[in-house]
Known about the structure:
By secondary structure, the protein is of the alpha+beta class. It folds into two domains: 198 residues, BirA Bifunctional Protein, domain 2 (2-Layer Sandwich), CATH 3.30.930.10; 91 residues, 3-Layer(aba) Sandwich (Rossmann fold). The longest helix is centred in the N-terminal third of the chain and has 21 residues. It is elongated. The site of zinc ion has 9 residues, from loops.
Amino acid sequence: GQSEEEIVTPIAQEYAASYRDIPVAIYQIGQKYRDELRAKSGIMRGREFGMKDMYSFHETQEDFDRFYEKAKEAYLKVYERCGLVAKVTEASGGAFSEKLSYEFMVLTDAGEDDIVYCAACTHCANIEVSKAKEGDACPKCGKSTLAKATAAEVGNVFDLGQKYPKAFGYTFKDKDGNDATPIMGCYGIGTTRLMGTIVEVLSDEKGMVWPASVAPFDVHLVSLAGGNADIIAEADKLYELLREHGIDVLYDDRDVRAGEKFADSDLIGIPTRLIVSEKTISQGGVEVVARASGTTTFVSDSAIIEQLAK
Ligand SMILES: [Zn+2]
């Protein structure tokens, strides 16, 4: 539950009063505040955090089930694009529902949940609700034994049934003109914790490694000018060229040592680093370093935009 059910249900009641108006899904992305007793691990668990939450209303259980599966698949794609492998995990419905809910778990020691999962199929359950324990045969496929792992919850989906519509007296007119109570679901992605999880899972000993899909910038432009006006001018020119082509650039034009610039660049973890120096200018191009692999290539000035578009 994302705890905005009491806000959203009356809104749906107002705007979706007929079977023609549903299914309908409403979402928002915003900050949430909780009096978190166990605030810890930086942005992994804080008293203020970003959350995407969505609520859906359906005429029939079948339609809800269809949408629920679709939402789960969409969430898995979101995590995949963030460079993560998330497991759909059986969990308790908590205070919001008596039914099972599903959490999206990413394996990382920085997480706070313990899960058991099967390596041979998709079965995965939070230890709090799992009847099977580590070493037991998988209850779904039976082909493997369950392994235990620590994981971070980066999202969840709940089948809320008719709890909130009933509590608010929300009914819609069905095809025959009778009053019917909709079935409700809610769906959340913890955007702040997702960032923390990406950092935990994808970082290396030098710092963060942002996947291009969520990186704050496309390119980190590093000039090694040493006060040389020609090199500064070349780097400035490249900066403008990149921006003209819609490329988001973090430009390090500080007058500090190369080693310091590279260390900071590694730490910040923008996917692609471009280096402009006396050497690269004399060769008519720039050095391109991929943060994730460390691969360095030399690209001529005329080919740089095309190269970055790949
Ligand atoms: Zn299995």
